[in-house]
Amino acid sequence: MPLKPIYFDYNATSPVLPGVYAAMEPYFKERFGNPSSGHAWGLPAKQAMNQGRRQVAGLIGCLPEELVFTSCASESINTVLKSAFWSNPAVHLVMTAIEHPASLECAAWLESQGARISRIGVNRQGVVDPDEVLNACGDEPSFISVMLANNETGAIQPVEEIAVRARERGIPVHTDASQAAGKIAVDIERLGVDYLTIAGHKLYAPKGIGALFVRKGRKLLPLLHGGGQENAMRSGTENVAFIAGLGEACRMASRDLPAEEKRQRQLGTVFLEGLNRLGADYLLHSADTLRLPQTMFIGFKGLRAADILSGLVGYDVAASGGAACHGAETTLSYVLEAMNAPHEYAGGTLRFSWGRLTGLEDVEEVVRRLGLVLESLKPAA
Ligand code: PLP
Description:
Elements: E1 6-7, H1 18-24, H2 42-60, E2 67-70, H3 73-87, E3 92-96, H4 101-112, E4 116-120, H5 130-137, E5 142-145, H6 159-168, E6 173-176, H7 188-191, E7 195-199, E8 210-214, H8 240-278, E9 282-284, E10 295-300, H9 305-314, E11 317-318, E12 320-321, E13 323-326, E14 329-332, H10 334-339, H11 343-346, E15 349-353, H12 360-377
Parallel strand pairs: 1-11, 3-4, 3-5, 5-6, 6-7
Antiparallel strand pairs: 2-8, 7-8, 9-10, 10-15, 12-15, 13-14
Helix pairs in contact: 1-8, 2-8, 3-4, 5-6, 8-12, 9-12
The structure holds pyridoxal-5'-phosphate (PLP).
């Protein structure tokens, strides 16, 4: 019998839930109107957008008018960071060294345009120290960008503390909540940030939709100029169907979050118990800090991530690697490097991430298949 494929890579992307798809479908069909049109075709599209905006706002506790729909998290992040620089080319951008490439590459480009950037390191748990972030800001005009949860380790960053202290000094703060929204409670007022990025496809909406929270009164210069949609902060005819999908995904996340967070965390416990039963020699990165409920970044001692991954692919399990091989050389992910992860474990690091459609039997089956892979990679006695 063919093996059931098991998707254990939810941090890369998540499936579109059937309810989300159903919410989108009419806007590909009879409700195809342009939300800016004043006639009978425009109105349902406009209403769908308004509803989507309210639903996303409901997930993070902001006002609907504080949201700008974008095409993805990368666009939200690029808009925020470039806006900060274009508003004041003397601004000092302070971020962590473990941000997603959407932030790091954008910052590198801004640096090439003359921006001053500081990248703050993290401790062994993969967590940034708020003191270091705030101290780096100095007395000059600054802008802070710190992700809420890291996509590789799942480690949650002290954004709340950073934002409280930044606010006292009038420093705006952006957080990339792409991996956090929908998985843990994300509340704008508690976090106290000025800008926040959401990625649709990490929370069961389709790829190609994102959102950006911009606190009332905060400035945002657009990347896209044109028809003045989204309060002139993001021109271009809105992706109504995907906005409806993102809204529904956020509504479902708000409704189910406490129960799903608990269930998915329990699956993690089962996964680790399974690894222990296998007798695997592993290191769970960021084990001693707050993490997302459904992410584990695990290093297997003395093994190469690529070998484990290809073994898992052979058993129809999808995960992702934290280290890549180039011939005999192993290149660790920049997150593992920044954490100074022990080399004997780091090279064999994989990211396992699960989600709403993962059942207990899937976790047990991943453990079983992983056991077969690890056995096959044991050096001959
Ligand atoms: N930020 C984080 C933390 C992510 O994990 C990702 C995607 O993996 C992104 C930003 C970029 O998302 P997208 O490729 O949808 O723009």
